Structure to design on (337 residues):
C-alpha cells in the first residue's frame, strides 16, 4: 500500500513539474508573440509530418532490431514485429507513467516470446547504458562544432525574462535548491526504507558495477559491428528528425545540422526528465536552445511544441496500434502452427 502511494505521489509530482514548465514557457508571451505564433503556424508546411512520421517509426523499428541483438545471447530469437510492437507499447506507457514503460515492454514481449521478464529487464538496462554513452558522444560532437554552446545555454536557462533587460538570477541559489531536494530525497528514502549511509555507498557501487558489466557485455555480442551500426543509425534518425523539422516553419528553415545537434542534445535531456512524455520539459529546453540562435521567443516555443507534438503523436498512434497488433498477429501465428 505504501509503495502504491509513493508511486502515485511520484507521478503527481512529475506531472505537476511538467505542467509548471508549460506555464513557465508561456507566462511572458505578449500579444505580439501570440500573433507571431499564430501566423507562423498558419503558414507551416504540415506535409512534412509524413516524412517525420516515417523517420520516427523507422527509428523505433531500429531500436527494436537493436534490442533483439541484446536478447540473442540469452538464447532467444525474437520476431522483429514483436520487438517493434513491444517497444511502441513501452513508449505509449511512458506517456502516462514515466519509466514504467521499460517494464511494460519487457512484459509484453515476454508474453509472446516466452523470455523471462527479469532477463529482458537486464537487456533494457544495458540498452539505456548504451543510450547514455551515445548521448555523451552527441554532446561531444555538439561541443566540438560549437565551442561554448552549453555555457550559453546554461546562462539562458538561468535568466529571468520578467523584465526587458532579462536580469540573471543566481545560478548558485538554483544549484543549492537542487542539491537540497536531492539530499531531502535521500533522507526520506533512508527513513522509509530504514537504510544507513553505508547502504547508499553500496547502492552507488552496485550501480557503477552494473554499468561496467553492461558496457563489457557488448564485446561478447556476436554481431557487434551490426549493433554499433544500428546505434549510429538510431541517433542519426533522431538528428534527421530535428533537422527536417526546421523546414516546417519559414522562420527556422535556414538552420542546419549544427543547430540540429544542439536541439537533439537539449531535447534528449528534456525527454530524460521524468515528466509524463517529456511534457513541458522538452519544449522548454528546445525553446531556450533556439533563442540562442536568435529565434524569437514565441516562435522558438512554437517550434519546440511542434517537435514534441509530432513525436508524441507517433507514440500515441503507433502505441495504440501495437496494443491491438501484438496479440492479433501472434494469434494468427499460433493458429498456423
Amino acid at each position: 500500500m505504501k509503495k502504491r502511494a509513493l508511486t502515485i505521489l511520484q507521478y503527481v509530482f512529475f506531472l505537476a513539474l511538467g505542467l509548471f514548465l508549460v506555464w513557465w514557457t508561456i507566462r511572458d508571451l505578449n500579444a505580439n508573440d501570440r500573433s507571431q505564433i499564430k501566423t507562423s503556424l498558419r503558414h507551416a508546411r504540415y506535409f512534412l509530418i509524413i516524412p517525420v512520421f516515417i523517420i520516427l517509426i523507422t527509428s523505433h523499428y531500429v531500436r527494436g532490431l537493436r534490442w533483439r541483438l541484446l536478447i540473442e545471447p540469452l538464447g532467444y530469437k525474437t520476431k522483429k514485429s514483436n520487438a517493434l510492437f513491444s517497444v511502441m507499447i513501452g513508449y505509449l506507457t511512458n506517456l502516462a507513467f514515466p519509466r514504467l514503460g521499460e517494464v511494460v515492454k519487457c512484459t509484453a514481449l515476454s508474453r509472446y516470446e516466452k523470455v523471462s521478464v527479469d532477463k529482458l529487464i537486464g537487456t533494457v538496462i544495458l540498452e539505456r547504458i548504451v543510450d547514455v554513452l551515445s548521448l555523451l558522444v552527441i554532446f561531444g560532437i555538439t561541443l566540438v562544432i560549437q565551442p561554448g554552446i552549453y555555457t550559453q545555454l546554461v546562462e539562458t536557462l538561468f535568466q529571468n525574462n520578467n523584465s526587458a533587460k532579462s536580469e540573471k538570477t543566481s545560478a548558485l541559489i538554483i544549484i543549492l535548491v537542487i542539491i537540497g531536494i536531492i539530499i531531502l530525497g535521500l533522507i526520506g528514502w533512508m527513513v522509509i526504507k530504514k537504510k544507513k549511509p553505508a547502504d547508499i555507498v553500496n547502492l552507488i557501487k552496485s550501480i557503477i558495477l552494473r554499468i561496467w558489466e553492461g558496457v563489457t557485455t557488448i564485446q561478447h555480442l556476436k554481431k557487434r559491428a551490426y549493433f554499433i551500426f544500428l546505434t549510429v543509425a538510431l541517433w542519426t534518425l533522431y538528428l534527421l528528425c530535428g533537422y527536417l523539422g526546421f523546414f516546417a516553419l519559414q522562420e527556422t528553415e535556414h538552420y542546419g545540422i549544427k543547430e540540429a545537434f544542439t536541439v537533439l542534445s537539449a531535447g534528449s535531456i528534456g525527454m530524460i526528465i521524468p515528466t509524463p512524455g517529456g511534457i513541458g520539459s522538452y519544449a522548454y529546453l528546445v525553446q531556450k536552445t533556439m533563442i540562442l540562435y536568435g529565434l524569437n521567443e514565441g516562435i522558438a516555443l512554437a517550434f519546440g511544441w511542434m517537435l514534441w507534438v509530432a513525436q508524441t503523436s507517433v507514440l500515441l498512434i503507433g502505441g495504440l496500434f501495437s496494443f491491438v497488433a501484438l496479440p492479433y498477429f501472434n494469434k494468427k501465428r499460433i493458429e498456423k502452427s
Notes: The two ends are 43 Å apart (CA to CA). The chain has a mean pLDDT of 79. Residues 297-336 form the longest helix (40 residues). Residues 31 and 230 are 46 Å apart (CA to CA).
